[in-house]
Write a structure and sequence with these properties.
globular, 4-stranded antiparallel β-sheet, Rossmann fold, 8-stranded mixed β-sheet, about 30% helix, alpha/beta, 2 domains
Amino acid sequence: MDILNTLGHLGREIHRCYDEFGPLLVFDDGNKRFLSFGTADEQSCQLKKNPLILQHDYARAMLGVLTQYGDLSKLQQVTLLGTGGGTLATVLHDRLPHTHIVAVDVRAAVFRIARQYFSLPRSPRLTTFTQDASHYLATAAAGQCNLLVTDLYQSEGLDPLVLQKDFLQLCAAHLSEHGWLVLNLWKEHREESDCLQQLQAIFPHIRMNTTVDGNWIIWASRSTEDITRDAAKQRCKALAGLLEFNLWQQVKGFFRSASRSR
């Protein structure tokens, strides 16, 4: 069965290429652009008239971790493992002018497509690495990253690397003392007790929430510093103008009592 038979709902196909990992396709429905790895799941979605407004709930929930930083100007480095269409990198580059963005992806074609079809900028504040995520973390300077976002998906689903203890330890070593790790998982992973136990053994401070689309988003830190629900709500209000969406709608679930682990 042709790929288009399962992805026609995304609009007109405007680009298709293949690499050793499989197909990469770009679709355009006139209003939005989509990146797919050949399955029904969208890897990225971007509003054409305003590429700086994140479209997916899970991406907004991941960005909600910014509420954990009192002063965003002190966020010196953000590392993104898994680039997709580069939508998150593009937003962070624009909205955090004092921050250096590092984008890592094992697929070189991803960066070419992100620049050609999804407005990923060329900038001295945005560095890209075509590498396996574990290799990048193992060779990068330790303790230099303030925010580490992992969104590692293959055509068949979540990269199993993400659930491995060794990988989580590399993530911890990459982060600064008060840095945060963000994981994008599926709701099914909530039932895998080893997953959360391994994470808790490395990161004592965890907040988590499941989006309406079934993504299980985890924020994790080695720091025990915390903010209250009211403080988070106020920070969401302050960030709403910057991000151009209702951030509290995505963040409030992280501040339910059952969403916290310490």
